[in-house]
Amino acid sequence: MPAAVRFGVNYTPSQGWFHHWLDFDLDAVRADLDSVSALGLDHIRVFPLWPYFQPDRALIRPRAVEDLVRLVDAAAERGLDVNVDGLQGHLSSFDFLPAWTRTWHRRNLFTDPEVLDGQAAYLRTLAAALADRPNFLGMTLGNEVNQFSAGPHPDPDRATADQIDAWLERMLAACEKGAPGKLHLHAEYDATWYQDDMPFTPAQAARRGALTAVHSWVFNGTAQRHGRTSVATEHHAAYLIELSKAWAEEPHRPVWLQEVGAPAPLVPAEHAAAFTEATVANALDCPDLWGITWWCSHDVSRDLADFPELEYGLGLLTNDRRPKDLARALSRAARDHSYAPAPRTTALTVPADPAARSRCAPGGDVFEAFFRLTADGARPTTILDTRAADRDHLAARALTEVVTPDQVLRTPRGGTRS
């Protein structure tokens, strides 16, 4: 169990959003990082935009890499560690892919040999440039790159689960080659856990890389179905943390809540602080939590066009670097270093078959049963249905009770399961 949970933020520059890489202003970055550090946070996650850094398969721009190193050094001066996302990829509803993978040069992101060579070289280069920085945590392969591999993306790069597994193995190896021993991982949006035909699988998320990352957004049907202050909405991040443990091979594999935010209008601005407090408190009730990294640091400027409305107001800080109430809520949690959750001893069975993972999504029987148990005070975790009778596995995870969704949902509230 970690001695303390890490608290950080996904860094969205206050000036120019992620387009700031085009005309990098170190003074503006320093001012942004000062406002982050003042909240008592200890790390940031940063996002080079892939086509800006590698506009040609054979050209990784030295100046762009130098700017990334300067950002990491500026973070170190403020006591902030840094995780770097490589393949951007997809951010805030926009896709950023280099021209050598699209239209006339259309090649599959996950299977084309030349694209894979280019990606591996890029990830290795970024990692190597930062390998000697003590505050460099490691690489995340990219931001929610699974959204490119299946619907609802309008032009997906189709691949099989085996092909994705090979892709993950190669890209993680490239990061390790560039920066040996760092915390390298991959991270997807929740379709990995919820969508039956998603080739990025829960097993890959829970077994590949240094730790498991989950991204929690309650606009996925949770808040729409259950409401803003419901058990399901306020515990959704905790649910994903515990859901991931069903597939993990290591009994105490660390889990990083790498993205979580308060999206309007489902979580109105005046209720964002309360949502933040509840979400963080419930996540902290999960054993083996590595850290919580809020989305995001600063609001998107209204000078920029075409973002979905919710994206403009997700920041802990305004566009002019003033903290909001939800920033103060996160700051209070970050300054309270107590973290000693009791073990979760009741496990809900989930289907091992990835073609049935929609049962874990909002409205599915696993999802609904988990929150029935939560509402009844059971503090559940999850276990694969194929492991439910494995005594060694149960003992390694300190599990004393295993229940099925059917047992939970057919029992009257407050009743006894049989």
From TrEMBL:
Q: Please give the superkingdom of this protein's source.
A: Bacteria
Please name the InterPro entries in this protein's record: GH (IPR017853)
Please name the SUPFAM superfamilies in this protein's record.
Answer: (Trans)glycosidases (SSF51445)
Gene3D superfamilies given in the database record: Glycosidases (3.20.20.80)
- What is the name attached to this protein's record? Glycosyl hydrolase
